[in-house]
Amino acid sequence: MTVVGPFGLSVRDQALEADVQAGLTAVEEGLLEVTKSEVPFITEAAQHLLRAGGKRFRPLLVMLAAQFGDPYAPGVVPSAVVVELTHLATLYHDDVMDEADARRGVPSANTRWGNSVAVLTGDFLFARASHTLADLGPEAVRIQAEAFERLVTGQILETAGPRDGRDPVDHYLDVLGGKTGSLVAVACRFGAMMSGADETVVDVLTQYGERLGVAFQLADDVLDIASDSHESGKTPGTDLREGIATLPVLRLRERAERLGLAEDIALCELLDSDLTDDDRHAEALALLRAHPALEQARRDTVRYAEEARAALVPLRECDAKAALMELVDAVVHRAG
């Protein structure tokens, strides 16, 4: 049994382990190659976050999904490169919008070179992803375009906020479906499709990826409140400090509006205050950790994770299916 990929995923079958490891190695080589430019500075900027690491969660899903067809088919590795490049490009743009100072333990591109270079580097990565994608055929281009539209739509909806009295929780879950679920779904879809798996298998894995992607992000929401920095890899309460209303906060506000309890209203007021003050931030974090809203967010995470697990039921029993099931377990574990 060997640990590969994010979350310490255990692959029990030696042949599957070899396929996944070889695939991920090939993807890494492909990412380094496709991010090279004739202009050395562009290469440096384009490989800045790539060389800083990352989970390679999406390429792992491509490799596992490909096991339901021919995992050695020529389109499998390039499709994983496309998905990871797209994800990487969005990180450059996200860091500009969020004014982030760091990413993956290194200074963000916008901190190091300024917003213009960061945005243009993200554009360069999108262009390189499109170049690789063109060799995978018109259907792959269409799928990627639809997913990218959903991703951008999710980002716009997050920026605009809920409109016309829409429920904030429903709005937020739709945002996550676009921003995160869409690309994770494409990773599973490409892996199955490029391997020549049956269309029914492609559909099942696409649905799995969509739900797993949302569950993965919701688990991060819970971790931001509940974990220490060693467990989560980032400072606890980062989203709180930046005023980002993730699911635990939205569940708190929902409860405060529904029940009108003084302590809930007071906590909402505290969260709306200036949390750059360390004492106020620590108080808000402690209160939210003890609040029922955090447990509700955990239950929401588990619900999406279990929907991902249920989506896999029609697939034949095999080691790849077991690994995909274990990814669901890992997401649930992250949420506590």
Which stretches are poorly predicted, pLDDT < 50 over at least 5 residues? Answer: none
Q: How many strands, what sense, and barrel or not for the largest sheet? A: 2 strands, antiparallel
Q: What is the CATH superfamily classification of the largest domain?
A: Farnesyl Diphosphate Synthase
Percent strand: under 5%
- Termini, distance in Å? 24 Å
- Number of strand segments: 4
Question: Which term fits the overall shape?
Answer: globular
Number of domains: 2
- Reading off the top of the CATH hierarchy, the class of the largest domain is best stated as Mainly Alpha
CATH architecture of the largest domain: Orthogonal Bundle
Secondary-structure element order, N to C: EEHHHHHEEHHHHHHHHHHHH
In the sheet with the most strands, the strands line up as: 1-2
| CATH topology (level 3) name of the largest domain | Farnesyl Diphosphate Synthase
Query: How much helicity do the residues have?
Result: over 70%
Number of helices: 17
Structural class given helices, strands, pairing? mainly alpha
Summarize model confidence as the mean pLDDT. 91
Radius of gyration: 20 Å
Pfam families: polyprenyl_synt
Keywords: Magnesium, Metal-binding, Transferase
Cofactor: Mg(2+)
Organism: Streptomyces olivochromogenes
Report on this structure:
The model has no long low-confidence stretch (mean pLDDT 91). It is globular and about 60 Å long. The protein folds into two domains: 13-197, Orthogonal Bundle (Farnesyl Diphosphate Synthase), CATH 1.10.600; 199-336, Farnesyl Diphosphate Synthase, CATH 1.10.600.10. By secondary structure, the chain is mainly α. The chain has helices spanning 14-34, 40-46, 48-51, 57-66, 76-98, 109-113, 115-134, 138-160, 168-194, 199-226, 229-232, 238-241, 247-259, 262-271, 278-289, 292-311, 319-334; strands at residues 2-4, 9-11, 102-103, 106-107. It has 17 helices and four strands. Strands 1-2 form a two-stranded antiparallel ribbon. Helix 1 crosses helix 5 (76-98).
